[in-house]
């Protein structure tokens, strides 16, 4: 039986937190399914073949926490459809099918519901999408709205006492959230970490800011809630027990949302890294004003944070003011990027096109910013209005929301729609033209990566598994890109100096990530990829 089908009755590392307090009377089989993502910039799918066994980007934290919260007496299976599709045999095995996901996964979630109902199974949907828009899921038997908490216990009790589908839809809505410091360790034992591009972990939930396009405050609040440092370390230990992803991304809405709490966490992370031989590098998502906190930056450097995603969104001051992102203006953006680079952190930037303040010159300004900032990777995305955001409310009131599955966005832009889409396409194809991309990576190889701490050549880092992983990536890079790639000359101009200097780890990083960016851009130029992570365009998902 493979790792996806192990029962939660299998002993796990001793937990610092708890399962549901509900004691069940009946045995239940719970099938947790995470739906497949539609391909996009952020799925990194073009890099998977270079990694060997990788099939998905990151494990889904939310549904794994719920899987771990169920009564220990119940059998729980987990399927990530980004790794493999759920089959009829999986549905037949289950008493209950539980699904979670984001708005972009809505068609896939509803399809899973239909397949489960064909086998007469009770279906439950939870997570951010249904919590924001319950009306998106009219056919599910049970909706669990809100975060883990009293509604989850009520849902578990209902599933214990009922074995047949309800006659009409039932809703359980969380009134009392389970504190983050009581969250169970996600069910990592149900994963094969070798199948994921990155590992991930959550320290806090919520963000103190009010960016117009963001739904985080409505879903999770403005006052970040926190796990304890001990919880974070226990989750890292559990991760290493079941595999080493090599890199772990803190999926917090804003990693620096509570700086005092972060100051307390970082010494624990530093100590954990030292005790374990620095087995992984960390990445996170933070506001750009992190650059004004040198004490935090120094500790993050020592904890081996190598990448930070910042929602820069646009270099245009007027636009940042209009979308309530003035915290990006607390110091010059280019200066902030250079500060982060000086602590060894490669900056990844969010960029959005389609703001009301955009002009025909916006694309030129974005491309100039990319050149001046030397940021290699930017998630250049078309603006899309999400429900429960200030942007949605404003545009709805103005009659500027569009429901058209053939469009890249649900917004009636102030500029002509086709012009905005072409601005996006020009920015993407120019930013990821191989020579321009590798030029920016060359800058970071010279001015950013050398600022990282020297990590020890420990047994955890020099394990046979890591060596094998590195050899696999290198051989695939040399074959698929160096020999067969259509940008192989550009690749070798970057690779040969790196090889001569012994910068193997940097070469692997640049070659791996750069390959996805270049291949994805080729598809964008052919109009084969979406301009928005949240595009309404119809996508088909096939179940077998």
List keywords for this structure.
single chain, 544 residues, alpha/beta, Rossmann fold, TIM Barrel, 19 helices, globular, disordered N terminus, rSAM, S-adenosyl-L-methionine, iron
Structure in words:
The protein is an alpha/beta fold and 544 residues long. The protein has two domains: 28-173, Rossmann fold (3-Layer(aba) Sandwich), CATH 3.40.50; 198-450, Aldolase class I (TIM Barrel), CATH 3.20.20. Helix content is 39%, strand content 13%. It has helices spanning 48-51, 61-69, 88-93, 106-118, 128-132, 150-161, 216-220, 229-241, 259-276, 294-302, 317-322, 333-342, 362-373, 390-397, 417-431, 434-447, 464-483, 488-500, 504-525, and strands at 29-34, 75-80, 96-100, 122-126, 142-145, 170-173, 199-201, 204-205, 225-226, 247-250, 281-285, 305-313, 346-353, 377-382. The strands form three sheets. Strands 2-1-3-4-5-6 form a six-stranded parallel beta sheet, with helices on both faces. Helix 4 (106-118) links the parallel strand 3 and strand 4. Helix 17 (464-483) packs across helix 19 (504-525). The longest helix has 22 residues, at 504-525. The chain starts with 28 loop residues before the first strand and ends in a 19-residue tail after the last helix.
């Amino acid at each position: 039986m493979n790792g996806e089908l192990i029962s939660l009755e299998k002993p796990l590392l001793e937990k610092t937190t708890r399962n549901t307090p509900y004691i069940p009377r009946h045995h239940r089989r719970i099938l947790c399914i995470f739906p497949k993502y539609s391909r996009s910039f952020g799925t990194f799918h073009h890099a998977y073949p270079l990694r060997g066994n990788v099939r998905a980007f990151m494990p889904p934290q939310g549904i794994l926490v719920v899987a771990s919260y169920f009564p220990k007496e119940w059998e729980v299976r987990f399927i990530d459809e980004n790794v493999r599709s759920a089959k009829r045999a999986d549905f037949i095995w289950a008493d209950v099918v539980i699904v979670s996901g984001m708005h972009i996964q809505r068609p896939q979630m509803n399809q899973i519901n239909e397949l489960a109902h064909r086998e007469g199974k009770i279906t439950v949907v939870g997570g951010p999408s249904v919590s924001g828009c319950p009306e998106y899921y009219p056919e599910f038997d049970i909706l669990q709205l809100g975060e883990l908490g009293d509604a989850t216990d009520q849902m578990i009790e209902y599933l214990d006492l009922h074995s047949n589908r309800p006659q009409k839809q039932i809703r359980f809505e969380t009134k009392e959230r389970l504190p983050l410091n009581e969250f169970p360790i996600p069910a990592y034992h149900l994963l094969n970490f070798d199948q994921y591009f990155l590992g991930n972990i959550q320290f806090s939930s919520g963000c103190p800011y009010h960016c117009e396009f963001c739904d985080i405050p409505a879903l999770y609040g403005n006052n970040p809630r926190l796990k304890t440092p001990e919880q974070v370390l226990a989750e890292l230990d559990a991760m290493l027990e079941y595999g080493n992803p090599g890199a772990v991304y803190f999926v917090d809405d804003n990693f620096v949302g509570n700086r005092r709490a972060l100051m307390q966490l970082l010494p624990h992370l530093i100590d954990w890294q030292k005790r374990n031989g620095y087995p992984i590098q960390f990445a996170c998502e933070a506001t750009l004003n992190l650059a004004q906190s040198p004490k935090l930056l120094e500790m993050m450097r020592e904890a081996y944070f190598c990448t930070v995603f910042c929602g820069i969104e646009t270099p245009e001051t007027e636009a940042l003011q209009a979308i309530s992102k003035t915290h990006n203006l607390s110091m010059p953006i280019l200066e902030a990027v250079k500060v982060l680079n000086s602590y060894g952190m490669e900056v990844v930037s969010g960029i959005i096109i389609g703001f009301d303040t955009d002009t025909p010159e916006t694309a030129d300004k974005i491309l100039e910013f990319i050149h001046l900032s030397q940021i290699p990777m930017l998630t250049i995305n078309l603006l899309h209005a999400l429900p429960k955001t200030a942007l949605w409310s404003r545009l709805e009131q103005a009659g500027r929301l569009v429901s058209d599955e053939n469009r890249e966005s649900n917004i009636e832009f102030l500029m002509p729609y086709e012009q905005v889409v072409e601005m996006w396409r020009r920015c993407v194809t120019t930013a990821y033209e191989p020579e321009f991309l590798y030029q920016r990576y060359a800058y970071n190889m010279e001015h950013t990566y050398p600022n990282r701490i020297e990590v020890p050549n420990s047994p955890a880092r020099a394990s046979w598994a890591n060596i094998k992983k590195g050899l696999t990536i290198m051989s695939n890079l040399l074959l698929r890109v160096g020999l067969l790639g259509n940008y192989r000359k550009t690749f070798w101009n970057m690779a040969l100096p790196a090889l001569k200097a012994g910068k193997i780890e940097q070469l692997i990083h640049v070659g791996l990530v750069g390959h996805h960016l270049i291949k994805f851009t080729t598809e964008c130029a052919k109009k084969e990829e979406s301009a928005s992570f949240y595009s309404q365009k119809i996508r088909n998902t096939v179940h077998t």
